[in-house]
Amino acid sequence: GFSGNLLLPKTPGHILAQTNNKTEILCELKKEHTGVYWYRWSQERQNFEFLLFSNPFGNATYGENISQDKFSVHRASSHTSYSLHISHLHGSDNGTYYCSTSQSSQLLLGSKTQLSVVDVLPPKTTQAPCSKKPMRCITKSKAPDRKGACSPLVWVPLAAGIVILLLSLVPTAHRLHRLRRRLWLRVHRQ
User: Strand, coil or helix: what is 81?
Assistant: First the structure.
């Protein structure tokens, strides 16, 4: 059976890397273990492939047709943090990578990391920080980022909430006006 309760993923869920470069996928265990297994799911080939097992002493056992020049595992001094290094990246390295360990004949599987290898990385866009004044935002990229504090996704629901609150106060103000008038009439009748 599979379980993920003793593994803490440290790498983002998706890595975009360039052909012929290298990357690393980090995996941290909550407890010290006897080693880490690394697997890859290939959507294209529709298979789950064993890459390698690395024990705490730095010895590695590789899967069938897995190059030792391409894959290596490094362990941090904490004995609970491992990183899979992948070099000479190519399109065949695309896939979903998993780290795992075994305990009491159970395979504990970590969260997945999707690796996409491309020939050319897309250009990065930058956004200047939003001013402390409300509703002022300066962007340097051609396409505005709609997730920041200056975004309509933030201020439109806020404005709608204020309008709804004000509209809900109208009946209350009307009732208060009627009560005040009744009280005034009652006082003046006496």
Answer: strand
CATH number at residue 24: 2.60.40.10
Q: Which domain holds residue 181?
A: 156-189
Tokens representing 149?
Answer: 């504090």
- Mean pLDDT calculated for residue range 65-75: 90
* Per-residue confidence (pLDDT) for residue 148, from 0 to 100: 52
Q: Is the pLDDT assigned to residue 134 strictly greater than 60?
A: no
pTM, two decimal places: 0.59
Selection from 3, 17, 8, 34 nearest residue 114 by Cα: 17
Which ranges of 34-151 does DSSP label H, i.e. alpha helix?
none
Q: Residue 9 — φ and ψ, nearest 5°?
A: -70, 140
Does residue 145 lie in a domain region? Answer: no
Q: Are 138 and 131 in contact (CB under 8 A)?
A: yes
Q: What is the mean pLDDT of residues 48-53?
A: 91
47-52: which pairs have CB atoms within 8 A and are 24 or more residues apart? 49/95, 51/84, 51/97
- Quick check: is 68 in a domain? yes
